[in-house]
Structure formats: structure tokens, C-alpha cells
């Protein structure tokens, strides 16, 4: 077998393992998830260094009460390129981990797109590696 095929087969393992890990993490989160309503109470501006270029992103701070009645204020991990896309006072659907209410997902990041993309990359690299 040619060296490039072996390299592509080995490379295909990384996205497969990453996709499986992310899927299992998402599945575990869903197992302990509690759905609730949150409210955007603030916007935090963060400068992100992306490929050597500094870009400003805006992250909503979400307030909600857990099933025990305790109030939490969490900065979302999903940012926007414009502060105009975030509306202070807006009510949003969230899911939080009942064991760790600080771990939340908003409707915007509640999907399996990235694990699916990783599995797709696995298929592509594996296909290149085994094609004759």
C-alpha cells in the first residue's frame, strides 16, 4: 500500500474520534438537560484572535432560574459579530445541565452539526486512503 493512502487512513481517525467524543458529550448533556426560559440581561464584548486577526464578538449574558429556584447569570459561549443581533430583555429558550446549571445551551448552539461534519471528514479521508 502506498504511503499517501496510509497517511490518509491515519488522518481519518482524528475527525472520527473527535466526532464521536462530541456526540457522546452532547448525548450526556441531553440526558441531564432541563429546559427553561432565560432572559438576555447584558452583552459582553470580547476580542478574539482568529488566524492572527483580532475580531470583536458580542456575547449575551443570560439570566435564568433553575428548578430549585436559584438564579444564574451565564455568558453564552456563542457570540455574534454585531451587537445589534443581541436584544437585551429578549426571552430565549435554554437547556441547562441539572447537575451543573452553569452549563447551558441556547437554541442557537443546540445541535449536532459539528459532530456530523467531523464524521463526514472521516469518510472523505478514509475514502481517499482506500481508493485504488
What does this 3D model show about the protein?
Helix 1 packs antiparallel against helix 2. The protein is elongated and about 60 Å long. The chain has two helices and five strands; from the N terminus they run αβββββα. With 132 residues, it is an alpha+beta fold. The chain has one domain. A five-stranded antiparallel β-sheet has the order 3-2-1-4-5. Helix content is 36%, strand content 38%. The mean pLDDT is 86. The longest helix is centred in the N-terminal third of the chain and has 29 residues.
Could you write a compact summary of the structure shown?
The chain has 132 residues and is of the alpha+beta class. The protein has helices at residues 3-31, 113-130; strands at 33-50, 53-65, 71-75, 91-97, 100-106. Strand 2 and strand 3 (71-75) form a beta hairpin.
